[in-house]
Design goal:
23% of the residues are buried. The protein is built from four helices and 16 strands. The chain is mostly beta strands. The protein has two domains: 9-61, no CATH class; 78-236, Roll (Pnp Oxidase, Chain A). Helix content is 10%, strand content 36%. A hairpin with a 2-residue loop joins strand 2 (21-26) and strand 3. The strands form four sheets. It has a seven-stranded antiparallel β-sheet.
């Protein structure tokens, strides 16, 4: 036996759905219980208050329910990073990735995920080090190129004219023309599936002075990083300033 929520309880058959839903009435508010965790409420003016009556509502759910897109790598945005490595012969290589992010604060660490088929995968396994290079908007074409061809077949630095600089902290090169660099020592390797995740401890961060703010930290509006949208495969700029982190949320506290 179903319990009454507020003196009246109804069943409703919504359009295009065969299963009856529970509907609860409170004042002028009619609430449709889709399942135990989802409830849609409407203000209702013309309804029969008689207990036990059935009512039929024509509810357009397309604006209320989210559409399932399936199991996909749809996380927006993802970064556009260029991973710098040396091969076994000491040739510098660069590869663009989008699967990556900060994964630990102490020690500061970054995680990147590569397929085994990539040349950079073997380089990281060999050298136990890599750099993460953040290209600015003006280098979007270079960043895309670094992800189009394999370092096994081409000298990417020779083709692009960009400059590989040997890191003084780890056994890997970085791209001199890119404004922000993370120099990383490999500390963990995790085989997940198609991709292998490499966790690198950030040994040092290098930045062009031109991108630093008054506090000596990188200013995102000066770095002008590129962001990537998976599945749609497009590059975008970073948007406008919204507000101070760990601050603007106080305005919504009750």
């Amino acid at each position: 036996m179903l319990k009454s929520f507020s003196g009246a309880q109804f069943y409703v058959n919504a359009c295009r759905l065969s299963e009856p839903w529970r509907v609860f009435i409170s004042g002028r508010i009619i609430s449709v219980l889709l399942h135990p965790e989802v409830c849609i409420s409407y203000e209702w003016y013309n309804w029969d208050r008689s207990y036990g009556h059935s009512i039929n509502l024509s509810i357009d759910l397309e604006d209320k329910m989210k559409k399932s897109l399936g199991s996909k790598t749809l996380l927006y945005p993802t970064p556009v990073w260029v991973v710098g490595t040396y091969d076994k012969d000491g040739k510098p290589n660069a590869m663009t990735i989008a699967w990556g992010g900060i994964c630990c604060s102490k020690p500061p660490c970054v995680a990147i995920s590569l397929r085994k088929a990539t040349y950079s995968y073997g380089n990281i396994m060999e050298r136990k080090a890599f750099t993460v290079n953040i290209p600015s908007e003006e280098h979007a074409g270079h960043a895309d190129y670094f992800g189009l061809v394999s370092g096994k077949n081409e000298d990417k630095f020779a083709v692009t004219g960009l400059t590989p600089i040997k890191s003084d902290m780890v056994d890997a090169p970085y791209v001199n023309e890119f404004p922000l660099i993370l120099e990383c020592r490999l500390i963990h390797t995790l085989e997940i599936g198609l991709h292998t995740q490499f966790v690198g401890e950030i040994i040092d961060v290098k930045a062009d002075e031109s991108i630093l703010n008054e506090k000596g930290l990188p200013d995102i509006e000066k770095v002008k990083p590129i962001i990537f949208t998976p599945e749609t495969r497009s590059y975008h700029k970073v948007g406008a300033y919204l507000g101070a982190a760990f601050s603007i949320g106080r305005n919504v506290q009750r």
